[in-house]
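Re: the pair you flagged

First of the two:
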Amino acid sequence: MQLNTMYNFKNFIVNDEVDFKILFKNIVEQKKIIYICIIISFLITSLFLFLLPNKYTSKLVISPRVEESSFFDSIGLPSSGIFSGIASSNIDSSKTNSISESIEILKSLAFFDILINEDVTIGLMATKGWSQKSNTLIIDKSKYDISSNKWKKLKNDQTKPSLQDVHIEYLNTINILRDKSTNIITITATHYSPYFARDLLKDLIFNINETSRNDDIRNAEESIEYLYLQVESTEYIEVKNLLLNLIQEQVQKIMIAKSTPEYVFKIIEPPFVSEYKSGPQRITLFILINIISVALILLLSVIRSFVISRNLENN
């Protein structure tokens, strides 16, 4: 058997051309080693995938509220003809820009700074799983000490993860998709805990609506204060009437903002606690990993045959 194997190795390459029959025969003669390697690969892959924690995805479906400007009506311009066309064009452009801007705000570091708190930081940066029985996050003790409620030593001697580091993990956790034909926006959050994923989306939509509403109320109040000063400083009746109409418009904005909890985005489907895991896809991963493993094992077997054949030729 040994002599036969040596003969096959010597004849593995003839005139710098591969003899595939001999190659196949060499692989068959190494079948025991190949089978053992494949079985070990299957076992390691199975154990690895078994130990991977489940992840759950919560979904939020929203529709943007973009109010049409009443500026043309407030200054007495006609609502038809050329002015109507210009207004319609401006409104459509404004809606598109406002929606895109709102999506970018949801992703922005400045908005995340409003959203973040210690629970969110721990959930994103120090969690390695979720206990379904107790409904608690499984904390990575190498990153966070639960007993003392302190973070372990981080890079650059930081006492806790930086805002930017947590923001990067936040962007990896959420996914925002917009249907351009309907402007419906779907936001998903994927996490070890389905409750954390749901709560993250609830906080996200609440904060974007509340922040935008408070900003618009403040801006409208500042505008009213400025316009009143202009009214007092002018003597022209027409200008005063125009300014008073603009003040009325700002008052309407404040009224709408205070009476509309879902100010920027209307909730079509609120976030939910998923009962079914969204990942990992263990069967798919098992097949892909083992296909690659088998291919590598066979490749190494061919390389081994090639090396041995070269060594035999040199001897």
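Second of the two:
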Amino acid sequence: MLRLQMTLAALIILILPQTNQAVASTDVALRDAREATLPHEPDYDARVEEIYDQEARMFIILYSLGDNGQIDYITGRLVLEQSHNLYGNPVYATNEHPLFYWWNHVMWNDPEMDGVNGNERVYQRHIDFDLTRYAPCRFNGHNC
């Protein structure tokens, strides 16, 4: 009889965390469903700026979805090859689709690099793109 009580107590202890975990999993699923609305990459006309990150070998495009100059969507493509044209301007060969997306304070990863089609993964939440890394003068509030 004592053995059964211990087993029942252990079962109750195991059930409670699983119940809480199920609730947490539901919350995560709902949050992920809200985040799953990652918009497709905007048209090239919506771009505000382009950056080459030599350290990460990424070509980064900053977009304004509202067409107001406010940067609110960013993509990062791997650079496969870099060269210069006849005028000395850099030319980058990249993958067709981005590896990373930043939107709505969430960084997304698309390891298949097949465009926005629902298989993107949340890489990090509550993050903003640090533009000051590429333009240190903006750190002090100055325009570069």
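The beta strands are 47-53, 58-63, 73-84, 90-94, 100-103, 106-109, 121-125.

-B.
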